[in-house]
Amino acid sequence: TSGNDCLYVEGASEVLPSSVAKVTFDDDKSKTVDFNIIWSSSPDSFKYSSYISKPDLIEFPTEVSGQNAYAYFYPPYNPDFQASEEEKPPLLLKSHGGPTQETRGILDLSVQYWTSRGWAVVDVNYGGSTGMFLNLSTKLS
């Protein structure tokens, strides 16, 4: 949504929850002069940023020859604890609800709950997921 000297955008990232930001422009509307998050779905998440596990996009083969599926892998992460090198973490596998949905590599506190407690999480975008190719091209660019 745009205003006279600003616009409002909705977005999220791997470390920021779904939020609305106000972007203010100079008089010529050619440069940004201010950027403020004016609403956040989880404003307290900023306090815990040191515990956030960042996702890696992974690719794996499917049963269809030559066709791959994609997922986000979140390694366990907690700066207060470190497992031994020989120990492998338990793995939680998530799958979204259907072909009109997709998973995105944005901050999901339900994933972070597990990763901060020593679990690895894989959030799968199986074949047919909406936006699957957008996610891949975004990661590759």
Question: What descriptors fit this protein?
Answer:
globular; mainly beta; 2 domains; 3-stranded antiparallel beta sheet; 141 residues; 4-stranded mixed beta sheet; 33% strand
Task: Explain this structure.
Residues 81-100 are annotated as: Disordered. This is Peptidase S9 prolyl oligopeptidase catalytic domain-containing protein. Helices cover 11% and strands 33% of the residues. It is mainly beta. It has 2 domains: 6-43, no CATH class; 50-125, no CATH class. It has a 4-stranded mixed β-sheet, covered by helices on one side. A 3-stranded antiparallel β-sheet has the order 1-2-3, with no helix packed on it. Strand 1 and strand 2 (19-25) form a beta hairpin. The longest helix is centred in the C-terminal third of the chain and has 9 residues, at 132-140. The protein is globular, with a radius of gyration of 18 Å.
